[in-house]
Amino acid sequence: MAERTVVHSTFTLDRVYPSPPEKVFAAFSDPTKKRRWFAGGDSLKFETFQMDFRVGGTEIARFRSKEGDRVFQNDTVYRDILPNRRIVFAYNMSVGETRFSSSLATIELLPTKKGTELAFTEQSAFFEGADGPEIRREGWRLLLERLSEALAGSFGEQGRNEC
Prior knowledge:
The chain is of the alpha+beta class. It has a single domain (7-152), classed as Alpha-D-Glucose-1,6-Bisphosphate, Chain A, domain 4, CATH 3.30.530.20. It has helices spanning 21-29, 31-38, 133-152; strands spanning 7-17, 44-51, 58-65, 71-82, 86-95, 98-112, 115-126. The longest helix is centred in the C-terminal third of the chain and has 20 residues, at 133-152.
């Protein structure tokens, strides 16, 4: 029997933010606001970020490792948008010219008395050389933490990184 070359995975992350759905949605839909929390972090730095937030629109995020030896690219297509409630997008991730995963992600925003409940669900196919389900889940966990910090205005220069 041949060895499988694709690993499939689905995971969900739930968060509650003390911000209204409109503010959380804006953190995903406004290119300036998204770049503030979605930008590379400690181990990666942005080279390119282009975003056309509409159904059928695309997003390209290109990162370089701090060491400069690897270039990562995230190519996204927005599939469904319901303002302040839902965003569905498909994306491929690559290192250099090698695609290593393809995913469909859904963000649901539910208003609560204290803010917004965010449900993030990702269905992924990981190819040879991929980061894999555990690392991807952890990556999104960290991104959603950065989003929390951005919504609170508590990282980077005072006020500059607030969503």
